[in-house]
């Protein structure tokens, strides 16, 4: 996987995030649109993590990996509960917004990193 492919994928994901926030603002259902984007993003991340972990013969879990996985599972649970019926609960809204904006910040951070440091191959 080349860095150009990764940059294109990151830009597409960032555009999807920004489109979801603007569509949610226009339809007055911003919490629901953020929940859908969070759910899709977290499921994609977890699938990538599982596939990547299966390819490693000896994998040692680090504390930050446990923290990120726990946070992503928490965001996924809040997104699913927001999609099903609890979209008016303040706690669920707050976690959906925090997860959404942390994902956007991570995407922008990855784009800046890829822009500053030229990589030959990601894997």
Automatic annotation (TrEMBL):
Highest taxon, organism lineage: Bacteria
* Record-given protein name: Integral membrane protein
Q: Where are the transmembrane segments?
A: 6-25, 32-51, 66-87, 94-117
| Keywords, ordered alphabetically | Membrane, Transmembrane, Transmembrane helix
């Amino acid at each position: 996987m080349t860095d150009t492919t990764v940059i294109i994928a990151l830009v597409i994901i960032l555009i999807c995030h920004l489109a979801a926030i603007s569509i949610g603002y226009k339809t007055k259902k911003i919490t629901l649109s953020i929940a859908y984007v969070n759910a899709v993003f977290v499921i994609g991340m977890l699938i990538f993590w599982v596939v990547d972990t299966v390819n490693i013969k000896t994998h040692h879990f680090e504390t930050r990996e446990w923290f990120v996985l726990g946070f992503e599972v928490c965001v996924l649970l809040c997104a699913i509960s927001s999609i099903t019926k609890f979209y008016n609960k303040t706690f669920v809204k707050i976690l959906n917004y925090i997860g959404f904006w942390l994902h956007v910040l991570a995407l922008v951070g990855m784009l800046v990193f890829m822009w500053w440091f030229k990589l030959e191959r990601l894997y």
